[in-house]
User: Fold these one by one.
Assistant:
Number 1:
Amino acid sequence: MIYEMRVYRCVPGRLPALLNRFANITLKIWERHGIKQAGFFTTVIGESNQELTYFLQWDSLADREKKWNAFQADPEWHAKRAETEKDGAIVTNVEVQILQPTAFSSVK
């Protein structure tokens, strides 16, 4: 099992729009593609309170590539993303890391 950590840095004031998009659009599309989330977090104390950090769980890099590419090519995702960004961009930067649990991790 591997995990993907994604940190989305939002345009100031646009974090609520990003949270709404995940809650009402993205998660439903992910479910259709078999993408499993392992947690979503907003920053309370840190560099910026305009960040969303989340983790995805994958069986392997090949699993990630197959499912993520299918999601990225999904016509509904493209349409809904464009619709949610009609008033302007929501995200300024995305940081991605692929993580492997250690032998002593509580998650495997």
Note: The radius of gyration is 14 Å.
Number 2:
Amino acid sequence: MKLAKPLLFGAALALSAQVSAECPQTMPAAEPVIPDGARASEETMLSAQAVVNAYIAEGDAFLACRDLHPMLHNRLRSKLVKVATAYNRELDTYLDRSELVAGR
């Protein structure tokens, strides 16, 4: 289960590599909703992971094909990192809770 974080970033990289050559017109509009890891089910966490991966891939695709001012590029990249960090924080909470329930 501790492999979930590397898998999140690996999946995001894989998804961004598969994005078509066509450049997205805008950054993803709305940040995904991150579930509360203290209460979420495994299904909810897995679903959120897929949504976060897609959000990051779409944002990466937008940034990869735009010639933006470095400050704007960094600001938008920061939004993507913020979402990934928030998901990983809740994933840690979920995993800690799951380990306690399983008696590990």
Note: The CA atoms of residues 56 and 66 lie 16 Å apart.
Number 3:
Amino acid sequence: MSPATPYSWIGLLAGLLLAIAGAVGGAGAFFGALVLGAVGWVVGAQAEGRIDLVAALSRRSRG
């Protein structure tokens, strides 16, 4: 692994910072930070090539 910071961690940090910046406190802010952090991680992991959202979202259920 290279010493550079992975995109998924940068995305996670960006999502958390956006949630903190827009939060005024309380449980809603906490859950907002969790959601935005998770979204940031997913976007970063997609950019990094760890996960493939296109393949995961285009799967159709057979049955």
Note: Residues 27-48 form the longest helix (22 residues).
Number 4:
Amino acid sequence: MQALPDGLGLPLERGVALQVTARRVRMTTMTVLGAPGEVFLLTHNALRSQIGLATHARVERIDPVTLRPLVRSPRLPGGPMWPGGMALHANGDLVTVYGRWAHRLGRDCTIKAARRLPENAPYNSFVTLDCGLIVTKNLSDHAPAMLSVLDPDSLAPVCAPVACPEPSIARLSAVGETVYLVGTASIMRFDWDGTALRRDPDWRHFYLEGSGNSYGWDAVIADGHAWFMDNGHHRYRLSMIGRGLRRTPNRLIRVALDNSDDVEAVTVSRLPGGSITNPPLVDPARRIVVAYDSANRVIAAWRYGDGPLQALWRREGIGCASHLLLDPARGLVITNDYAHRREAVIALDITTGETAARIVVGGMLQGVVFPSPGWAGDIYWCSMGRLARVFVAASASDAPTNHT
């Protein structure tokens, strides 16, 4: 999700301040909304992976205001560590992919189905096709990506794994019955034909040719184009700042969906050592795309349409690295700003780049995962060791609190 649903954005007005409630959590990935008032949180452990031990994930249903856990799932086996992902499926249950395991959970966080995935590697979340099937893949920078298609009820494979022509680090993207995959050298797509995923032989772009850059991350499919950024090889520890491994600038790349030869690439910050670990943001209504260079603390925007991308604004000194959220009604981009081992959440005007609101949420690690909306004009901000609820206080009873 990039755009907030109608009515679920922060109700920001001039002069209104943000508030925050925060809770320490081992490692958070994302929250997902269920029925009105239901909020589910995906967490995982990571320290065991540092010494070669298997890791696990857990799902909680949390209080939407205090963030306290109300119900917890059993430990969900994962094996090799990667943050993974979670979604509420059309069948009414939660689906998670973490490590090399997929799980289906009831809304009471009990396990209904589990499936060990074929590759001995972490799987980088999943996408759901319009027909309801789940598609996931292993994460690797050296072994070819293998696409697995799962039944959403049993989690059993519905066809043999589909071999890709190259490795892939990025998360998958999907529109309808088509899956887009950013590999370590090219972007390609696969169509579900009712029996298997088939690679489109006529749509592929080798985005790294002649660049000297490293692999790309997740693609945003919007307004007739695939949008993503490269130079994704980095050494994230506490933050992304200064952690890029190539001395080249990172780039924003556009590939047209109707013609993979119709492409454009622009450097984001023009600074050496540029790097990211997430996708750009696209506002189709305003025809604006926002990209960033996490390693150099730069965020910028371009207007797109007829002709080349046109630079719109640029901000330096903004430590953004997480997935971005768009409030389309108010024209705001919600992101993080990390510096000096302290993280803030900020809202930027998408047409000017000006800061509309800012609140420190705390935590020593820079968030690189998924923020998401709440039910009451609030935002849940996930980072690697902290969950925060950002909101506009309506009364004294909404005063911020912190839970450990």
Note: Confidence is low (pLDDT under 50) at residues 395-400.
